[in-house]
Amino acid sequence: MTGAGSGEERVTAGWQERGTVARLAFGQMGTQLLRTAVRLEVFDRIGAGERTAEGLAQDLGTHPQATHRLLRALAGLRLLDETAPGTFTTTAAGDLLRSGTPGTMLAMARMFTDPAMLRGWDLLEESVRTGRTSFDAVFGTDFFGHLRAHPELSAEFNTAMSQATRLLAEALPGHYDFGRFGTVVDVGGGDGTLLAAVLRAYPGTRGVVHDTAEGLAQAAARFAREGLTDRTALETGDFFASAPAGGDLYMLKSVIHDWDDERCATILRHIRKVVPADGTLLIIEPVLPATVSPEAPDLTYLSDLNMLVNVGGRERTAADFAGLCAAGGFRLDAITPMPPPNVFQLIEARPA
Q1: From 68, 146, 210, 257, active-site residue
Q2: What is d(CA 67, CA 58) in angstroms, rounded to the nearest whole number?
Q3: Residue 257 is a catalytic residue
Q4: Residues 211, 217, 221, 226: is their CA dihedral positive or negative?
Q5: Top-confidence residue, 14 or 330
Q6: Domain boundaries, the chain
C-alpha cells in the first residue's frame, strides 16, 4: 500500500509539469488564434456589450459554426466570457484588444503575431547553431530594412512600441529626477511616447527625439496633441553615424538590446562625443540576473531569443552593460530597478 501511494503521489505531482509542457507545445496555436481574432476585429465588434456568435458571423461574413468555435477558444484563453450558449462578452484582458480602450495593446498584438515577427522563429534552431539572425535569411533584408520597405507595417511597429512603452512612461517621471537636466535627448525615441511623459512632468525641461525618418513618422503629431511642440525638436538621423549635440541627458530606451556589442559601442561612442563632461547617459532596458531564478520573468528570456532571431541583438546582464559602457567611453554608476510590474531597469552612466 505504501509503495502504491507513493507512486500515485509521484504521478499526481507530475500533472503540473505536464501542463507546462503541453501549454508550450500548443503555444503557437494560441498565437495564431490571437492573430486571427485581432485581424477580424473580434474585440472591437463585440465592444462593451455582448454579441452572439451567429450575429458576429453575419457581420464578418464567416462560417457560423467555425466562428462559434473561434469565440469559445478565445473564452478558453480568458479573453472572452460565454455568458449564455453562443453569447459572448469581452473580459478585462480582452478589453485591451479593443482599439478605443485606454491602455490598448491591440497594435502590439497585431505586430507580434505578424509574419514579420514570427517567420524567423521557424529557423530558431539554425540561429542557435550559427548565432546568426534568421530574419535576414527569410526576408532577404534586415528587420528595419523590411520596415522601411513596408510603410504600413512600420507604422504598426511604431504604434506597438508606443503601446509597449506606456506603462514605463506612466511610472518613469516619478522614479527619476529629470528636473536636473535642461535638455533630454531621446536617442531612438520613436514617436516620443516616453519623452512626452517626461516633459509633461518636468515643465522646465526641453526634449529632442533622434531617430530615422520612419521612426519619427508619428512624433510630430504626438507632441502637437500633448501641447509640447514648442519644447521639443525632432532630429532625423542615424545613431550609428552621429548623435545630436546639445543635451545634458542622453536616454536610450529599448535600443541597446536591438544590436550586437560592436554596434552598441558605436552608438555609445557617438553620444560620448557630444555629451558634456558633467552629462549623463541613461539606458533603460531589462537587466538579466547572472543566473536564471524561478521568479525571473520568462518574457525577458523570450525577448532575448527574439533579438537573436529577428534583429541580431540580445538582452544583457549588469556585467554586460558595464562592459558596453566602458567600450563606449562611459562609467556605469548605478542600476536601479523600476517598481513592478515594469521589468525595466535604469542604467545610469557618466563620461569616463
Answers
A1: 257
A2: 10
A3: yes
A4: negative
A5: 330
A6: 16-101, 163-351
